[in-house]
Amino acid sequence: SSLKNKKNQSFKRRTRTKERSQNTKERAAGTDRNGNIRNYRTWSPLNNQKLMAEYEKYQELQAKSQRMQEEYERQLTAKSDSHKQALREQTEQYETKLHEKTGQLEAAHDEMRQTMRIHEETKETNRGGRRQGDSGYKKYVRAEVEGRKGRNMRLTGENRNHEKEV
Fold first, then answer.
1. Quick one: which of 83, 86, 97, 129 has the fewest CB in 10 Å?
2. Residue ranges with strand state E in the chain
3. How far apart are CA 149 and CA 143, in angstroms?
4. How do residues 27-73 score in pLDDT, each as one tens digit?
5. 115 and 144 in contact (C-beta within 8 Å)?
6. Cα distance between residue 12 and residue 119, in whole Å
């Protein structure tokens, strides 16, 4: 039991010494056990300088954040404008191409109508019993008409495909 009392007394002595040491450190720092400032009078100019330095860092970071935000918005606006311009240019290209193809199609239709008229005139001439030896000319006209019909059909198909794209 005596040994037990000695250990207990020794433990208490060490605990008191630690508490005294802690209290001395707190008094020197001007803080309590939780790190809160106990006495504002103990604040030194060094603490004020640290606080001002931290505030300046905060202001610098805030200014940097603002600059970055402005740069991002500027880039976003530039990209949006660039996209709109590209879209306008592409629309103009397709409209020009559409007008060209429409003109080609109308020309092909006109050519086809003229060929059909020539064909009908030739057919009437042949029915009238003019020359019997005109079979070579008939073949030429038929081949010409068929060829033009084929080209017109191809142009019509291209125009329809182009209209689907637009």
1. 129
2. none
3. 10
4. 555 555 555 555 555 556 667 788 889 999 999 999 999 999 999 99
5. yes
6. 128
Tokens of 89: 């240019």
CA–CA separation, 163 and 153 (whole Å): 15
Maximum pairwise Cα distance, the chain: 153
Separation of alpha carbons 47 and 26, rounded Å: 16
Q: How many helices (H) and strands (E) does the chain have?
A: 3, 0
Location of structure tokens 């794209």: 165
What CA dihedral angle connects 146, 148, 154 and 155, to 10 degrees? -160
Q: Find how far residue 12's CA is from the centre of its chain.
A: 71
User: Where do we find the tokens 């311009």?
Assistant: 85
At 51, list the tokens.
């606080």
What is the spatial distance between Cα 136 and Cα 163, in angstroms, rounded to a whole number?
A: 41
